[in-house]
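This section describes the prediction task in plain terms. A model, or a person checking by hand, is given the sequence of a single protein chain and must write out its three-dimensional structure as a string of tokens. No templates, partner chains or ligands are provided. The sample shown here is typical of the held-out split.
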Amino acid sequence: MKVYNNILETIGNTPLVKINKMTKDIEATVLAKVETTNPGNSVKDRMAVKMVEEAEKQGLIKPGGTIIEGTSGNTGMGLALVATIKGYKLICVLSDKQSKEKMDILRAVGAEVVVCPTNVEPEDPRSYYSVSKRLAEETPNSWYVNQYDNLANREAHYETTGPEIWEQTDGKITHFVVGVGTGGTISGVGKYLKEKNPDIKILGIDTYGSVFKKYHETGIFDENEIYPYITEGIGEDILPKNVDFDVIDHFEKVTDKDAAIYTRKIALDEGIFVGNSAGSAMKGILQMKDMFKKDDVVVVLFHDHGSRYVGKMFNNDWMRDRGFLEEAHKSASDLLENHKDQPLVTVGVEELVSHAVAKMRQFKISQIPVTKDGEFVGLIDETALINHIVDNEKVKDEPIGSIMGPKLPIVKPSASIKELSKLINKDVPAVLVDLGDNKYHIVTRHDVISAMA
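The expected answer:
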């Protein structure tokens, strides 16, 4: 019988799959190393085993001990498998930007999960780097993995991932593309491939908010480059020891929005359900397409499985809230979708200015149409209202008709975005949409800008 002794023996020998639709404008052959077939569904299984085994050899962890690690989730999953098979406890420290699915999966496989804030400096005692170290100091018989500086990380990829790619491409690979986080994958694979053929280009994918690209090109660690970003698993605000900048030929930055959009495209166009860093990598390849020639063989590594992002990149509401969803807003009717169930707020021409102020506060709106005898006769706008009150505090007790501006234009639901953009300007903050049966709703400057973003 062909039987594995335990689940750890199934790690590696992941498939190489040709990318077709997404690379139709690239002459080179693009192949994806799909790491989701590892038992923990990510490339991190490889280095998790290697790091634990090296710790055992060095006597850093004893039987029944506790493994502690700061992780974006995937390394934690790999460590959880190792801990289960080898009889260790596991504490995983994650930043709060990681998906809920990652946290739930870690708990499901027996890990204790500690969540830390994302938007703090690495040295901050609340950061997941600092909390991981502190827990390791406080926990008896524990070992802090430190995947960022633990060189067994990149050794795992030098020993397994690199040789697999070389053999699967019959040595024809010309470019290797991968997102860079801890640096273990790109550095281990890159070192192996360049030893086989120094002409192979090693291309790292970075994200905006990370220091890698500028440091690689200038040698400057620029703290101004650091700011919070959404993309998971790549980019850093530190320089991990595992990142061997000497084997990396180029870094390409990809935006959070593009990373999210192309993560979804991989599933829709190629039928490969993978995670956020894969979207970054594919968009990076398209941005670098002029670097590839007809006979080139480009291998891109897909880190992890899409199931870890179903509440984020694969969730329309999450994408829409961040302005990432590519939706075709064609008309005024489309722009009403997000608030069509809310009533149109109006004020009467004889009402006091203070009533308009109260309604703006209550409904959190910036402009209110003014009516008289069921007809629209004017507009109260937040900016103009503030100016009037600043000039004369007593204006709040005057009728709205005394300070209202011109009435808003009225359009049909079929009015195009282009038509709306011509009507809405610095003096006209919104338009009214005639829905028929004497019903109206409002489309604001903000609605139009959001649709065009």
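For orientation: The mean pLDDT is 92.
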